[in-house]
Amino acid sequence: MSWPGRAAAMALLATLLAACGSEQPPQAEGRPVGVVTVEAGQFSDDIQLSGEIQAKKDVGLAFRIGGRVLERPVNVGDRVKAGQVIARLEPALEQNALAAAQAALTAARGEVGTARNSFERQERLMAQGFTTRPRFDQALRAQETAQAQLENAEAQLELARDRLGFTELRTDVAGVVTERRIEPGEVVQPGQVVVQIARDDGRDAVFNVPAAVLDNHLADARIRVVLADAREVSAQGTVREVAPQADPVTRTFEVRVGLQDPPEAMRLGSTVIGRIELTTAAIVAIPASALTQQGRAPAVWIVDPDKSTVSLRSVDVLRFDPGKVILSQGLEPGEIIVSAGIQALHPGQRVTRLPERRPSPRQQAAASALPP
């Protein structure tokens, strides 16, 4: 081969070698893994308790005076109206006292008239100089005494009338009689409760709640109350009162839930079930398949979105639920973690992310729906 032909062949070979050197070797494919994007949410814990319907306020009615019960025209379960007679005492003593007070008032009025006439006569004589000063002063004091006795007699008459009126026990509230404590013929003392009335101005659902539940934000919880034998009958309520001391036997605390517009079917004494939804602050829930270990500590694989490599990070587990793990810390919203294919991964390994599988709108609605 001539020298020009040999030079051309060498130039062509050099060009081919240069072209081959400029090509980059193909990058290896990453390990296919399933991934999820971390999202923050609120964790709801539902607690169901059994209780009963009670009146928001109970009123115990009692006589202001003592005596023998003549009649009690109401029984347990009767509905009463404001002003209705609940019981009566024998009024003979009070009637006699009223008659005596009326007689004393009549006598006091006569004494006042006599004393006034005597004073007026002494006053005229004093002006004419025909009487002494002591007699005038005596007539004045007699008139003042008679007037005071008249006022006392009037007060005694009013007191006697009141005591006669107290022989009838009337209710000043509307409601239902829940308890009777006396029977006709019994002698009662002043202030002794005769009947108990549940007022009509509200109803409570009363539950015995363990102390562990009280540690949560129970006052802010949403409470749904349903009848135990008719779950379709329901009402919403909020915590109105929590007992400051535990029951000595059950070691539970009485919690009264004020019901908002309770239906008529929720009668006093009905057994109800209260569903308390306790909501925590923002937390992170991940699929249970994403959890692995770093030594003895729980951990997850974090995907670097720029380099498509993985790294292992320790997390703190709040609780385990079927199919998911609730974390208290360790992940931030927006981070990408491996949820499938965590076996045989190692730090810095390149991965290929498979498309995320998100729940359908129907599944999301079903997950967020509150059970009855």
TrEMBL record:
Any one GO CC term of the record: efflux pump complex
Keywords: Coiled coil
Transmembrane segments: none
Domain CusB-like beta-barrel as annotated: residue spans: 208-272
Keyword Ribonucleoprotein: no
Family listed: Belongs to the membrane fusion protein (MFP) (TC 8.A.1) family.
Identification of the protein by name: RND transporter
Native species: Bosea thiooxidans
